[in-house]
């Protein structure tokens, strides 16, 4: 309500009247239909993802990291620019109101004249900046948008304008009223469409409810209600007000189209003065000040929550997601958003073009929201949205096409809007690629692993291939595979290879079939006991490693999970290491005893050497392991005892950064000074339930298990996972 009602109608009613005449009423009504369709799509998405961020959050769930950043970046900018426009409008109307109070004698000064600053060109901007900073400081101490009394006051003012208009309508002949409505389409149907493009932004604001969805109680019920009620109330104010402005707002000497063309910004005040006298003029000024203030407040509030959501996903600096303990308000995001608003008040040379850019961006993101609604409805197999739009898919299709058409019109009508948007996107692209890309992508990998449904929402069905030759490994391998890719969102393909020649005759040589039978029996038993729905594939080949590589390539596997009974100090190539050179997938190698259970490994030790290279796979593995049960993760770095203190400090910072990137803040880090890293890691591994090591895979002739890995494996008996990311 704070963002929708008031500011848009006061600023854009004159433009709509000047463009299309009395049919501006129809233009607002048709925009209302499009806005309701859009609100329904937003409501379905917000009920599915009740988190702060609005369209950015929806995009982050369904699209790639880069696409989600682009959407969030431009939506944040659009909300900031909308706040700038309302801040300047508040400053202008406040200056005008104070000037009128001095001119009417309601306020007097010692010398009987108005202060000199009222006539200065900088006074509206100064008031805008001061008010924005004050609101920003106020919002850091509370988590709600506030401003309820302002909304009530301005609705009362508009109600008086409407009731007064209808009273005046009863006092004049019907013929005069109908004459004011002719010609209804002052510029034809083309003018009507133009007026819709100019004025649609007057109904923007319902989307801000989704932007603060993470702070709404019972979001599945309250968010759809709030969106629809806000729009209905706004239309119940806008349409009657426009009607009385047309019918009783002029003396009949000039049609409303010509009257609005002469002074579009003051048309509401001019017409209200005609049928309510000076009181009507004062009411419009009061309504304007209240409307601009509440719209500024609402857009600042929503824009800060978009920045908060982006910061939590590592798409913006982390300090923007810091919350005040007492109120839960994201004070960093609020202050940065407010500061950017103040900066734009000073820097924007053409506020009108910036406003058009804001309108264009909102329309494009609304069209994206309709498209995302279709994707989420199709892909939400596990948990459908609690609130679902009736009339699907007609509602999102018609709403999306309408928003896209208005956006195209806006881009053609105001070319500067497209230029400003492209410039902002260029700035965001440089910042993302240079500062945020790696952290954002790792955070995205962690989110997908922690919430596997995101893979399906993005249209993906990951496949992990699990070759099993040793029946003793079947249970542990299947459990780990299901952890990496749950059956509800992906596929676990268990592969057994019957090692036999091309001329094999089972009736003559039954041993290969017997070995395969024992492996399959254990696979079926383990999958049944664990409740894992896995697929099985059995092939016959004299070269099992080559066959595994062929199957992995044929099925385009995301990961290959391999089992290994033991790792020896023998430096000769093993068949497994030869296989790794042929695989283009991520590889996870598990060495575990026969009776090992994945659930029993509560402690995880991750030795790191500082080189990295496995961040994405390690993040996915750790997040997957911690999805169903909390595990204690410890990152360990061993450095020589003669390491300088300055280097030790640098290494600790590197370890902190590595652990935060791969496991978040809930983990332990330790830097140990020792000249025997093998013994140190083996000692720490004795207390851990699972050790995770990374291995470089640089080509078919490069060994996976170097001497370091072999030594650790020989000195420890605990389960070990060796990961190797695809090159």
Task: Outline the structure in words.
Residues 1-418 form the Amino acid permease/ SLC12A domain. This is Amino acid permease. It is found in: Membrane. The radius of gyration is 33 Å and the shape is elongated. It is an alpha/beta fold. The chain has helices at residues 7-20, 24-48, 55-62, 65-103, 123-139, 148-170, 174-180, 188-199, 207-211, 219-248, 256-262, 267-276, 278-312, 331-347, 351-379, 394-413, 415-450, 453-457, 474-484, 511-530, 544-554, 575-580, 615-625, 645-663, 677-685, 707-715; strands at residues 463-467, 491-499, 535-541, 559-563, 586-591, 603-607, 632-639, 668-673, 690-694, 720-724. The mean pLDDT is 84. The protein is 60% helix and 8% strand.
So how many helices?
A: 26
How many DSSP E strands? 10
Whole-number total of structural domains: 3
Radius of gyration: 33 Å
Average per-residue pLDDT, rounded, comes to: 84
Assigned CATH superfamily of the largest domain: Amino acid/polyamine transporter I
Give a summary of the structure in a few sentences.
The chain has 727 residues and is of the alpha/beta class.
